[in-house]
Design a protein that fits this description.
The chain has about 350 residues and is an alpha/beta fold. Helices cover about 30% and strands about 20% of the residues.
Amino acid sequence: KRHFFPHFPRSRKTHTKRNKMGCGQSKNHPEFTPGKQDGKVDYRAKKAALARSHKHDGPSGRLPASIDEQNKKKQPRVLGIIPARYGSTRFPGKPLADIAGKPMIWHTYTNACKSRALDLCIVATDDARIKKVVESFGGICVLTNPECVNGTERCLEVYKKCIKKGEEYDVIVNIQGDEPFIEPEHIDLVAQIVCEAEEDDVCMGTLCRPAIDRKDVEGVNNVKVVVDRNMNALYFSRAIIPHNKSGTYDPDTKYLRKLGIYSYRADFLPEYVRMPESMLQISEDLEQNKVIEAGYKIKLGWVEDAVHGVDTVGQLEALNLAIERGELMHRGKRIKKGGKSFKGQF
């Protein structure tokens, strides 16, 4: 008794030599085995046919992911750079200033290295004294040109040196050297902003938090920012913004204070440094304003709280006094000089 597949028509074009069951196979039939002749199977041809028939690939499939698929899943490499200048006009030698028995740069570097986003963290300095201290506690430090105008230029110089060594990075995070209690999670967030930006014109990221009080808003050293509904910066200012008709602080207005950390697309950083100074940059003495003025976007991440940096000797004294009194909280714990809670942070 002969058996035929009901969906498989017998014709001169598709019918081949009958098998023992009286059923012929065609090249269009799923049971057809390439390379099978006179009962012999070409397993190499069979494997190639199976490979072509599988639509799925990747880790959960039977085939390795294609090169394009692997590139899509490739994690961006992130380089953290801490510019640390010795000759600050307001506070000379600030990176080496003592905070609870340790130099400021030690606090900043140690906390930055806890970030999960960073593949490498480097201190960029213009002074051999800072380099010596950083290397004494096992940190990585690179001497940069003393003529660098600002921390951004130091970041670019370090990035170029990494490229010459064959090290490639997709995102650069600029971590202020005077942020001794920087949160590692904040570094993760600012790196994520650029890594996951869907808009092509988002080339920088930074962070902001809600302003605490009137003093927090009115201080000219406290940079404020206004954003659009997509958390893209509209403007950075030392003045009170948003600014009402009376020109005074309004407790009902939601003010945002910018934090001192930035992330850049690696391919944008050279362009950023080459940009000429803009009117808004000069007016506010805020470098990031030239990016907005040039038509690029800076996206902000929101954090609820942060321990801010040290700009003056008075702020350093106040910080050490708060540590002595046990008033400073960091990463959910109270910091106290020489206490277990302080040592436990690092």
